[in-house]
Amino acid sequence: MAEAEKPLSGVLKIDIADPALKVVLTFEASNDGDEWTPATLGAALAERGIENVPGQAVLAEFLKTAAASAGKGPVSAEVATGIAPVQPAPETPLWEDLPVPEDLQQISSDVLAQTPPPVIARTIREPVERETTVTQKSGFPFGKERVEKKIVRDTVERQERVYIDPSVKELFFARQGDLVGRITPASAGIPGRDVFGRPLPIRKLADPAFHCGPNLQKIRDEIRAGQSGFVRAGQNWADLIPFSEHSWSVELSPDKATAFLLFTPGHRAIPLPDPEEILQAARELPYPGESLIQAREILQILTDQTEAGTEERVVISSSRDASFDIYVPEDKLSAYLNVHKGKGRGRPLNLRDVGTAIKESGLKKLNFETIKKDILAFYESGEMDLTSYLLCEGTPPVPGPERQVEYAITFNPPETTEKITSRLVELLREATGRADDPTTPDDAPRVNPEEIRLESLKDFPADEIQKTAFVKTEQLLCSIDPPTPGEPGVDVYGAIIPAEPGALAEITLHENITQQKAVIATTRGGVLDYRESDGVVSLRVRPHQDARIQVELTEDRMEARLSLEEGAGTGTLLTREAIDQALAQARVTHGLDQEALSAALRAARASGAGAPLTQITVARGTDPVNQSENRVEHLVGGPSAAPVRIRKDGTADYRSRGDIITVEEGQELCRLLPSQQKAIDGTDVTGAPVPARKLGGFELEIGPNVSRREEADGSVTLCSEIRGELLATAKRIEVLSSHTVQGDVDMSVGNIRFPGAVTIGGTVRSGFFVVSTGDIKIAGGVEGALISSDGDIMIKGGVKGGGKAVLRSKRNILSPFVELATVLAVGDVVLKTALVRSRIKCNGKITFKGDKGRIVGGTLRARNGFEVASVGSPRGIRTKLSFGQDYLVADLIEKEEKEIEKVKRRITQVDLEMRKSEKTGATGALETLRAEKIKLLKLMEKRGLRLFTLRERFEQHFPSKVVISGEVHSGTVFESHGRTFEVTSPRKAIAVEFNPHTGNIDISELNGS
């Protein structure tokens, strides 16, 4: 201790650094310095105002250290310390480890650059006072209410902008809901004291709070991300720049029929999801790819949603309405359900509708529990379509026993079948070769390829023919046993299904075979091909006919006639050699016409099988020249008369024929001239002689109405005794007083114009006419034709004129009915049943035989009136009946008026021409025109007088009456002498007359009506 107090020489430095929180002594030992002991050191420190001077031991230890370092340099030591103040700390965040993803590093720089500085606001809550009015009720039942004013204190919030340093110090990436960091609470701070004992104050923080900007949520001491994005943090703030990646998912509707895309769009800077990945995800749900929309459509959806920034659940299925139907096949033995789910934006499937349809279908034996279970399973499955789901089944009928086939033909022997089949193969090869060989001569015998190249040869070739038989057209081939009933079944509606008869052995019918019920027959002749394979019988009739050559001689053997028919199919064909052989067998040697033979052969070949050429004269004998006392010279008609009239333009008029030869009374018909020819024997076609006849008798037979007149030169002239129709043949001549047509008047007969009675056995067809000076009798009917007679017209079958028929008679017309025709009769018109929509002019009377005659429509004029059962129609068809005047005179008046009108027009024209001639000075023409005008004026006077006379005649009244025993319908008009009476309501049994004294039409009821 004594040593410690030994002074130490040296230089002492006391350092007190601002803010005086520590005292540092620096001592460097030196003999030139002051002496220092712990006590002197303490005193020196005290002199400096140090409040807590260190103890002697601390100072002694310092001096000891300094002495030990003598000569080595100064020694420093901290010998006293103050109490430093603890400054207040603001709220401090402790950030979580949320680095920016590597793939967003570049994007983050762009986002920060494009985002404006943060705008931070804090919520200030302030108390406010407001005055309110309160109504106090009185405590007494009838007391008045009292109104008082009170002061109410509330707390209101307002946003206040916080100004910050916008510098960004840290950057994170957080997803929505992530914990971004935790807040360390702020501390208030503790004041200190320096080494002199003076207090050291703490600084006051301007804003100790840590502020969270938009999209960050500060909940107690946690900071969480309200959205996904970049978190930028500054000195005392942080905010979140929204930035989320695109997110998507796919899902199915409850019925697995529609696929949906759930897409949450992220930042626009992020590439859109790959549509193909979305489609693949939908397929893996699973969902049928063919029901999805195209990738380009999905891309458009993603683009639109990203632009809008909205999250949506969109359909990515193609659209289809749901549908269902119940299908029952034609046999009604099963019922099937087809269900198709709706998809996309189409109408969805409603299971209740499906169930209702099944219940109302009328089907029987339905297992509703199973059906419901299966349909629900389909609904919940990923299947889009439920097709051919069996709802129920009926009971099929059991057919009867198999039906047997009984053949009615005789099959050819095997060698014949072999020969015919070989011929078919040969002809097929030959036809193919000829088709390919252009040098084949045109006149070479051919087989029609269509007859041997049958369509069935593809399935039934020639080498599979097992049997053959020759058959004829419409020949029975086989018959099938009658059916035996089987056991009936029940369809899905519960109806009985009759059982089919037993199955028929399967028969395939090819060409030229038909089946009518249980009978199979041919439709043409030929050869039948038969094949049986695996229980199936194939039948075919193919053309097969040998050429036919027949030579016939006339009874006098003066002509040889040849009939030919070409072969068909696999039959033999016509050849000239075969024809010559047939002629030789018939001993035809004389008068052969070689050209006719060649032509017949060509024609028969061209016509083909089934079209025989018959009775072709190919040889003629040499006729004998008979020694005869006369020969005929025709003076009327004869071979030169043309049956068809030729018009001026050279065309033929087939309606106006020259078949009827009309002669007058006393007209010469022919002359019989004596012959000087000697008898010369002839030769028949077999070469045998034909003796000539010596001086035979008179050859021409003279019929009725023909007279004979001997002439001085020895000839005989035949003359007609009457006017009529000449009929002349090689052996007979006669004149008929009437003309008869056995059938219809049509193209085969032509128009008829005859000076006498005409009898027609059939119908006069449209477009033809019959004109006669006598009576006309028609056994059939009359169509749109002209019938004109100087006598009566009698029609048995009625007139259906079609608006074109015209009947003209100078006497009477009799017919059961007349429809749509024009009728002109000087006498009466007598009918039986009806007169429909026709024009009638009759100077006699129109009557009906019987009590059912009726007149419907048309304009009818009858001088002597009508007798009919009913007139008109319940439909009010207009029917006009005129009576009491000479209506043929009316025709003359009309004709005369037209002629007068023509003369007037000519007079006007002559006047114009005269004025022109006067102007031009054409004196000659002027005189000619004046002379013509004088003649025209005289003609006008003459025709005017005639017209006046005719009109007086027409005004003459003829006693007549219209008697209607039955109904007269509305629309019926009666007319006479210009007076009319129209029936406006139905009447019955009336008589209509014209009263010449009053000039009125009188209507009276029939007696007993």
Brief sketch in words of this structure:
Keywords: Coiled coil. With 1009 residues, the chain is an alpha/beta fold.
Count of DSSP strands: 71
Number of helices: 13
Question: What about the largest sheet?
Answer: 11 strands, mixed
Strand order of the largest sheet: 50-52-54-56-58-60-62-64-67-70-71
Q: Give me the secondary-structure category.
A: alpha/beta
List segments where confidence is low: pLDDT < 50 over at least 5 consecutive residues.
Answer: 435-445
User: What is the overall shape?
Assistant: elongated
Mean pLDDT, to the nearest integer, reads 85
Helical fraction equals 10-25%
Gap between N and C termini: 185 Å
Strand content: 35-45%
Task: Round the Cα radius of gyration to an integer and report it.
Answer: 68 Å
Overview of the structural elements:
Keywords: Coiled coil. InterPro entries: FapA, FapA_b_solenoid, FapA_N. This is Flagellar Assembly Protein A N-terminal region domain-containing protein. Pfam families: FapA, FapA_N. It comes from Alkalispirochaeta sphaeroplastigenens. The chain is an alpha/beta fold. Among the domains are: 8-81, no CATH class; 247-315, no CATH class; 323-393, no CATH class; 405-438 and 447-544, no CATH class; 548-620, no CATH class; 631-736, no CATH class; 828-885 and 957-1009, 3 Solenoid (Pectate Lyase C-like), CATH 2.160.20; 895-952. It has 13 helices and 71 strands. The strands form 18 sheets. It has an eleven-stranded mixed β-sheet, with no helix packed on it. Strands 51, 53, 55, 57, 59, 61, 63, 65, 66, 68 and 69 form an eleven-stranded mixed β-sheet that branches. A four-stranded antiparallel β-sheet has the order 3-1-2-4. Helix 1 packs across helix 2 (56-68) and helix 12 (887-920) runs antiparallel to helix 13. The longest helix has 34 residues, at 887-920. The chain is elongated, with a radius of gyration of 68 Å. The protein starts with 7 loop residues before the first strand and ends with a strand. Residues 435-445 have low confidence and may be disordered.
